[in-house]
């Protein structure tokens, strides 16, 4: 876990390059039943496939990161998972980085299997990164970090989530006086030490969380910032939440952009507008 790689193709470098070229934006592919209705698609694997493939066709050649939310595919069983496989493959082929939003966390020996499923190129579900939950201990995620490093992929660890229930766990104070979230931030910082422009282990900090008093300055990794749009936060909140760390923020929106569909030109303009707004605030 102390190995440091600063080769240009580690995930931090790949993400920084994608953001520089395409703008600071991650678009979530979240085929909510209500969105399937609005797009006049069926609430089944066929509907999800049409939905997700439209997003990929409209956006994968222009946004930095696409983030399929796995549960919306899993709920349709093996056919839904097969759709997810194709979405991951096609989005990456069109040049987007794919962040598998699976929020996995378990004992280390099982985390090893998740690493094989989502971060090893031998798997049909392999993306460029995944979301992970640290509540079995950040150390339990070691197999994810090792597999990510081995293949130039990344991991985004939940720290200060965008939902209102998050602080009851994440602001809890541990025996050493730090909050749970600060412990996560500090452990991730040590995993990213020595990397440039930043390391392959990101953290999730919602744009909704306000000024929490946590120290974000040492993470040396990307910040995934959901909570924008449908959950109420706007671009200006990024300045308040991230302060001087805002140069490493990857804003993430799902419904706010997806509601513009199914028209592909409308999806593209919604994404372009969001990327422009975020670029201005994060500069
Ligand atoms: O890890 C995430 O992506 C995530 C973390 C978090 O703290 N809050 C959060 O909303 N998300 C995800 O980000 C997306 C937000 O969707 P919208 O509210 O529609 O933009 C959903 O897929 C959530 O599961």
Automatic annotation (TrEMBL):
It is an enzyme of class 4 (lyase). Pfam families: OMPdecase (PF00215). InterPro entries: Aldolase_TIM, OMPdecase_AS, OMPdecase_type-2, OMPdeCOase_dom, RibuloseP-bd_barrel. The active site is at residue 103. It catalyses: orotidine 5'-phosphate + H(+) = UMP + CO2. Residues 24-270 form the Orotidine 5'-phosphate decarboxylase domain. Transmembrane segments: none annotated. Its EC number is 4.1.1.23. Pathway: Pyrimidine metabolism; UMP biosynthesis via de novo pathway; UMP from orotate: step 2/2. Belongs to the OMP decarboxylase family. Type 2 subfamily. This is Orotidine 5'-phosphate decarboxylase. It comes from Cryptosporangium minutisporangium. The lineage of its organism: Bacteria, Bacillati, Actinomycetota, Actinomycetes, Cryptosporangiales.
